[in-house]
Amino acid sequence: MNFLNRKTNTVEKSAIIIGFFTLISSFLGIFRNSLLASYLGSGRNIDIYYASFRIPDFIFNIFIMGAVTAGLIPLFSKYIHTKKEEASDFINSVIHIILILSAVFAIILSIFAVPIIDKLFSGMDPASKLMVVRITRVIMLQPIILGLSAILGNVLLVCDFVFSFALAPLLYNLGIIFGIVFLYPKFGLIGLGYGVVLGAILNLIVKFVPMRLTDIKISFVPFYKIKKYMKEFASLVLPRTMSVINIQIFLFVVNYFTSFLEEGRLGIFNLANSFQDLPQTIFATSIAMAAFPLLSKMYYQKDILGMKRLYVKSLNQITFIILLISSGLFVLRYPLVKVLLHYGRFDIAGIKVTADVLQIMSLGLVFAALLLLNLDTLFALNDMMTPLIASFIAYGIGSALIAIWYKDFGILGITFAMVIANMIYFKIMMWKIVKMLKIDVYPMTVKIIKNLLIAVLSGIIGLLSYNYFGQFSEGNWFKFAGFSLVIPSLSILLVYLLLAKLFKFEELNDFWKILYNKIRRI
To answer: 496 lies in which domain range?
Structure first.
């Protein structure tokens, strides 16, 4: 356990560590989804599983992604650097209020789960809705446990104890996998809920190991101290929480209209979304999360030039990687989905629909991947109103498009509406960041166009490779994976890297340097 107590001291090292463990966790996530597809198939059961997360995720995202992400790191960074003696009281005040509020909401929503689920998933049959209610009530423990875990994790991140923070999602996935393999066969669908709660508990436990090395001591604080810190905390939290509520309402709209489509469409949408989330989590999220504490620190030190350089560098790094992955997903979505999901009860019809949904998602992957960096940058700049206004506009338009398109275009229309909403959300926030940091958009735009060009050229080569080698893929699983997925993927990667070298992309050199230095240190 000694490695959990080790500190990091640069953004690059933190990003590498977070990215490394996130990569492992994401592979477990792929394995988890393959197991889900195999055990549940592409019918109503997988819809029930994902529908059961909707209300618990609503609580988690409002109080954790809204409150903690917006207010905790910027204010904790301020206290740890300017009023260190108050840092513990501040963190304990946040813990008290977040746990109380999330528990109250969990209890209330559990009590009224039947009418809420009935309205939220109107297109489902009564038996399916009843099972969603049962699993939802079990999973309702998850946001409370993960709430405390997220607060401790952000404290560790600011204090440079990155290992425990990065390891936690891996343990969460292990808990869910345990539920699929061992608890589902014994308890049925409700066993999947038990696995989710187990994963949340494991996620929390690992955070306690390095916490004793920080200056933060978890303890009870009197109400007057909570009131003192919550006033400042709320000023940052409320606009961000409203932004998250807008996003969550949009997801409710997605779930509502999807419930009227064919059985399995809600599950297919979530499976495809998990594939596009994978590169975001491994690369974009790790870069953005590693940069966030430093961006907050630079703001309080009035280093706006440093913030501009770090933001542009992080944006270019994320764009460089995500456009490569978008190219690969667009061209190779069918063999990828087939290799990962075509097991057990998940049939070929489900594979085709999942691949079509993933192809549309790949068109907007770069916008979705950059949302967290933009959000974190605006939070670091103490601008909470822009994300609120942007989310209201973007997801309002997205919801209207879903209502218009879902009957004629089904799940594909819903997916395309989501892509458009994310693009609008990104564009509005990007405009404000450029204005606040006084970024020269011309060189940045030229860089992005060049990056897009090499992604398109790489995709064309990948498609030609797929069309040629795909004819040799008939036979066993290994032949199909090798000729239809691995060889075309390598051709896309090789062409992309060669073109990046030709265009002199410094992001390529940055990542090779970081990787080399990390391997040498190990």
So the answer is: 440-522
